[in-house]
Design a protein that fits this description.
heterodimer; A: about 250 residues; alpha/beta; 6-stranded mixed β-sheet; about 40% helix; B: mainly alpha; two-stranded antiparallel ribbon; 14 helices; 2 strands; about 80% helix; about 0% strand; globular
Amino acid sequence: MLEVKSLTKRFGGLIAVSEVDLDVAKGEIVSLIGPNGAGKTTLFAIIAGFLKPNEGEVILNNTSITNLKPHKICKQGMVRTFQITQPFATLNTLENIMIGAYANTSNKSLAKSNAERVAEIVGMTSLLYQTADGLTVAARKRLELARALATDPQLLLLDEVMAGLNPTEIDEIVDVIKGIRDTGVTIFLIEHVMKAVVNLSDRTYVLNDGKLIAHGTPNSIASDPAVIEAYLGHGAAETMARGHKT
Amino acid sequence: MKLRLQISFLIALSLLAALLAPFGISSKFQLDVLTLIFFTAYLGQSWNILGGYAGQFSFGGVMFFGTGAYTSSILLNTFGLPPIFGIFAAIFMGALLGLLVGYLSFRSGLRGSYFALITLAFAELLRVLANSVEFTGGGVGLFLTYAPGFYNLQFNSPTGFYYFSLILLVISLVIAMWLERSRFGAQLVAIRENEDAAEALGVDTLKCKIYAIMIMGGMGGAAGTFYAQKYLYIDPPISYSIALSVEMLLVTIVGGMGTVFGPLIGSFVLHAVNEIARHFISTPGLSLIVYGFILIVIISYLPNGLVGLFRKTRKSTEDKDA
């Protein structure tokens, strides 16, 4: 469904994303992990059209979307959420979600009923008339998800929807995400919460210093020496291996 | 629901009162003040569409007004085109100028104060241009002949212009009400609140902003024709006056940005304050100081405008009910 081919993004002398190749198949939940500053959000921003890559290609459903603007990409069925939540602050939850729903219809009552349906999926029905700037962090994360979902995407890009949530809230949102996948939406997510990554993803990519260093099932990734070194420093894998022996 | 019914009733009543006003008001001066209030509210609403709903502040809103005034006046003086048709040309030219300015500034990503300043620059540029080229009459300006008649959009009594301004006002209110209900309006508000998020959710932000400035431009253009036919004289400082640019944003900010009735309420209050201050204070200049002081008080204590005050009280009574 989504193919990324040797994508490179440079900011001046800094190579934020370097020759990244990855793919996401229909119906999968694929995750992207990596230490802070690895370039995950930059990669997402390029895929969703917010940044232009220096080299490489982004292909959605066999058509190149490399230089399309975000709203066009949204119309093609791929939508992103933001790591730092970006609510329409003075609007209430319903109105926020309706903006997403308006991507497919100009009919107000249809947009409203779609928004209400989505609010139920993410468990925000009781907060429909609360203005967004009064929502808790957890509710804002759900709102990000709800708005994106209301555009009726085939592929959802979720940028750290669990950051800042407590364990109960994480369990809840993991269930919500699984529920969304069961309705046929493909999901590509950035996440730091390993429990959720292992629990959710079919496959995981690991990004470090802008380069993909590993790829596989979440469990195989967790024991990959390159990944351990990326997170814990050079030599860490060796130390850990020795630790296990003795 | 009950509240909505009350508001609709209030609107109907106000409209009826406005329609009957000329029969009750004998003073030409008072009718003229009302005309001016409606006219300013109309211009404020044009600013409100781009500034209040879409969140793109402009300091040069007068450029559409001036361009409209010149368009219909030149068409009348040079080609003898009656202003009843000329006003549509003025609307067209205003919208076209909106397209040009909007495309140039929004496409290059100008936001906030940068956009405000570029509109100011465009208005000033047009003022200097109007001063220097021949077909605008240069610094001398353009005189229009006094020939009352519907085709000329000229009236021999203040009542005619009163109704003219009322029609403009009602049209502007209908546009704002449509924005409140439509997808386009919702998308403009989304752009105001968070442009990146709007773009991510499939809103063509560039197109929406350009449409908004085109509506503003068209409305401003019509206002220009109104002014030219009422005062029968335009020149560059009048047509592209910074004061008018400021007035249209002022009435909207005071009344309440991004609301249907904000510009009208703001226009009423500011004109009332102005007239009252002038009436009671004879020392020259002092009335302006009082006016300025009241303005500061309103803006510092009511950041959401006078409509915001109404909403606040409504909310607290609703809370009490619950």
